[in-house]
UniProtKB/TrEMBL annotation:
GO terms for biological process: DNA-templated transcription initiation. Belongs to the sigma-70 factor family. ECF subfamily. NCBIfam families: SigE-fam_strep (TIGR02983), sigma70-ECF (TIGR02937). It comes from Streptomyces benahoarensis. Keywords: DNA-binding, Sigma factor, Transcription, Transcription regulation. Coiled coil: none annotated. InterPro entries: RNA_pol_sigma-70-like, RNA_pol_sigma-70_dom, RNA_pol_sigma-E_actinobac, RNA_pol_sigma70_r2, RNA_pol_sigma70_r4_t2, RNA_pol_sigma_r2, RNA_pol_sigma_r3/r4-like, WH-like_DNA-bd_sf. This is SigE family RNA polymerase sigma factor.
């Protein structure tokens, strides 16, 4: 007994649906096309942008595409062409050179000088009247808003504003701080 051999004439033809509208095509084939776009880029967000651009190009040509069974191929070609164009337009930030340029020297602050400045600042703050000192500490060291400082101190916001303003003016005029801050 011989086994029947299947020929291409006896196999059923694969039929692809024809899409009545662009939106129905995108709804039906969107996930497959997104996988294709993701295979072309490393970043999922770039893949979404790439697919959106390719679909926009397909939408413009929708009426000219006669065989809707070939839409996937059309969109894939648009994806590939768009990605190639993006790659060619890419800005090159690296240049080959014989010698590396010297970085601009940015002197690191001396920890001893920073500690001396902090100590001078605290001594100047300690010379402020107690109420102004409390408001400056709450406002700038505890990072409270004017309203929060007013609530803690049980005064109005205007009182906080004026007291802090006077305290900062005294700190600017402090003889120990002035040389350290304005060198």
């Amino acid at each position: 007994m011989t086994t029947p051999v299947c020929t291409s004439a006896t196999q059923p033809a694969v039929t692809r649906p024809s899409y009545p509208s662009f939106s129905s095509y995108v709804r039906a084939r969107g996930p497959v096309l997104m996988r294709a776009a993701r295979s072309l880029t490393a970043n999922p967000n770039d893949a979404e942008d790439l697919l959106q651009t390719a679909l926009a190009k397909t939408f413009v040509a929708w009426d000219r595409i006669e065989d809707h069974r070939a839409l996937d191929g059309y969109v894939r070609r648009a994806l590939l062409n768009t990605r190639t164009s993006q790659w060619r337009k890419r800005k090159v930030d690296e240049f080959i050179c014989d010698e590396l340029p010297e970085p601009d020297p940015v002197p690191a602050p001396d920890p001893a000088e920073l500690q001396g400045l902090r100590d001078a600042m605290w001594r100047a703050i300690m010379r402020l009247p107690p109420r102004q000192r409390a408001m400056v500490v709450l406002r700038y060291y505890e990072d409270l808003s004017e309203a929060q400082t007013a609530e803690v101190m049980e005064v109005s916001v205007g009182t906080v504003k004026s007291a802090v303003s006077r305290a900062l003016a005294k700190l600017r005029e402090d003889e120990e701080l002035a040389p350290a801050l304005f060198e």
